Amino acid sequence: xxxxxxxxxxxxxxxxxxxxxxxxxxxxxxxxxxxxxxxxxxxxxxxxxxxxxxxxxxxxxxxxxxxxxxxxxxxxxxxxxxxxxxxxxxxxxxxxxxxxxx
Amino acid sequence: xxxxxxxxxxxxxxxxxxxxxxxxxxxxxxxxxxxxxxxxxxxxxxxxxxxxxxxxxxxxxxxxxxxxxxxxxxxxxxxxxxxxxxxxxxxxxxxxxxxxxxxxxxxxxxxxxxxxxxxxxxxxxxxxxxxxxxxxxxxxxxxxxxxxxxxxxxxxxxxxxxxxxxxxxxxxxxxxxxxxxxxxxxxxxxxxxxxxxxxxxxxxxxxxxxxxxxxxxxxxxxxxxxxxxxxxxxxxxxxxxxxxxxxxxxxxxxxxxxxxxxxxxxxxxxxxxxxxxxxxxxxxxxxxxxxxxxxxxxxxxxxxxxxxxxxxxxxxxxxxxxxxxxxxxxxxxxxxxxxxxxxxxxxxxxxxxxxxxxxxxxxxxxxxxxxxxxxxxxxxxxxxxxxxxxxxxxxxxxxxxxxxxxxxxxxxxxxxxxxxxxxxxxxxxxxxxxxxxxxxxxxxxxxxxxxxxxxxxxxxxxxxxxxxxxxxxxxxxxxxxxxxxxxxxxxxxxxxxxxxxxxxxxxxxxxxxxxxxxxxxxxxxxxxxxxxxxxxxxxxxxxxxxxxxxxxxxxxxxxxxxxxxxxxxxxxxxxxxxxxxxxxxxxxxxxxxxxxxxxxxxxxxxxxxxxxxxxxxxxxxxxxxxxx
Lengths: 102, 628
Fold this sequence. Notes:
The complex is a heterodimer. Chain A is an all-alpha fold. Chain A has a single domain, classed as Helix Hairpins (Orthogonal Bundle). Helices cover 76% and strands 0% of the residues of chain A. Chain A contains three helices and no strands. The radius of gyration of chain A is 17 Å and the shape is elongated. By secondary structure, chain B is mainly α. Chain B has a domain at 297-548. Helix content of chain B is 73%, strand content 3%. Chain B has 27 helices and two strands. Chain B has helices at 2-22, 28-51, 80-103, 110-129, 133-151, 158-189, 194-198, 206-223, 232-235, 241-250, 255-262, 264-267, 271-292, 298-318, 322-349, 362-365, 367-380, 387-402, 405-433, 448-452, 454-463, 478-483, 497-522, 527-536, 541-545, 550-597, 604-627; strands at 57-67, 70-78. Chain B has a two-stranded antiparallel ribbon. In chain B, strand 1 (57-67) and strand 2 form a beta hairpin. The termini of chain B are far apart. Classes of the chains: A mainly alpha, B mainly alpha. Chains A and B meet through helix 1 of A and helix 27 of B. Chain A: Its EC number is 7.1.1.-. Chain A: One of its GO terms (biological process) is ATP synthesis coupled electron transport. Chain A: It holds the Pfam family Oxidored_q2. Chain A: One of its GO terms (molecular function) is NADH dehydrogenase (quinone) (non-electrogenic) activity. Chain A: Keywords: Cell inner membrane, Cell membrane, Membrane, NAD, Oxidoreductase, Quinone, Translocase, Transmembrane, Transmembrane helix, Transport, Ubiquinone.
């Protein structure tokens, strides 16, 4: 193992919080939010892969592949919804959608 | 005997129920005949009971209240006192029922009227015949209820309904004291039987007897309109006039006197109680007589005179002259019923005019009313040789026989009251019936039955003295002998014959003086002057006209503070305090609930921030756990 697990975790944490910060900051654009979610998910995948390498089991890698599949499905759905929303309201600024107000 | 006693009670009850339940379905004639018939039936039973009477009997008709050692059966006790009163009640009420047929002939609510009148007679007879105190209390409350319902009989006028409530609430104060006394007596002796309690006198501590006596006096003062609870009776005149005659003059208001006389063997052993009873009676007699001198409403004059005469009876009970008090009770029932019925005739004939200053000169126009009314007035004024003269004298004789400063003072007060009584009685007679009629009121026709019923009452009032002629005539009075064997009634201290004759001469002189005074003031040339002066209201008359402002005193002392307290509790305590606290709590909760509600904006960003801050908090916690 060349790269120690701590380094991977630090990198993953940085990626995760970058993604999260980006998502909070870039609310005006739904597509950028989806991109940031991808970054966060990748951070999680990185942790899985790192853990898998550290303990020499394949479970983590399996999970990483699962997450990839899941993200591709999620992104395709989410993008379809973005297209739909854009058609309806001519905008993809999330602050403009507040119909779910309780 | 049992069947007579049961019928005496049941007949009026059945009549009342019949009119109350079926009155609307029956033709008027049938209902009226039933109402009068049951009372006369009860009178017939009372006469039969009198004929068959050999000695006191106790009859148990059924069980009523029974719990552990507490026993209050429906038991009747017929002795000379209750028998005499039963005869009087059924007879006088019978006549008043007949009179009511004429008086109420145009009133559509006759069924309610006669039902209440019959039930009143039932309750009054229960009161008089009861053997135990709870049953007596049942009758006591029954007459109170009927009185309330009949004072406010024409309840569509606010004034009448208020008078009914006033009577009910005022007497309730006395009734409460009476109720406490009953419970206490049961607690002391384990029995509520009147005969049993009366024989317990020596076993109960003196201080307790005194307190019990004062409680019973309070009860009697409420029912009999004695000071300080006298204020309801003048207002009770709002009811129909026969009701005033039956309930507020002849029978119900004497219930207090009956109660005190009945319980006298128990409470009479306390010197304090006797003095308190005598003082109450004497002062009330004087108070009401002064008020009656200035009234201008015919029925209010009679109301105050009733209070005054009952004051005499209470005075008689206080000095232990029980036969005298009973004698006065009987004659008073006759002549006061007569006066009220006569007044009812006058008022009906004058189209419901009650102001005596608007009457006058009715002597010839209403001769059929004038002569009986005059007979009643003579009795009330204690004119020599009438029934009222002898009975009032029997009481004053009892007072004189007591001696001492207190009773000496009460005797003088009683004699002065007799003078006032004679004055206001003849003031009423002369103003109403004599002189010239100055106003355009012309008497209308009267149903004959109304004037006919006056005659037997007038005869009884005038000849009532024969019931109990004074002892100096050489033989014992009929009533004295009849009542003498009841515990407490015998062994009355008698003034010597010389004293008694002297007293009667003084009383007769006073009565004639009052008559003379009224004659000189209200007849002949000075009549117009006197009437004009009184109509404008001379100085000081307002004080007497309003009954010494006793009502105002109660307003200031009791009613206004109570109203203020009630308003305070309503506005400040209930609405501002309790409701305010609860409303405040509710508002606080709603506002607290509004705080998290502000987060549900529906925007994705808010949720995201919530998520992020949650993650941040968890992280901070983990760091803190790791480091510490």
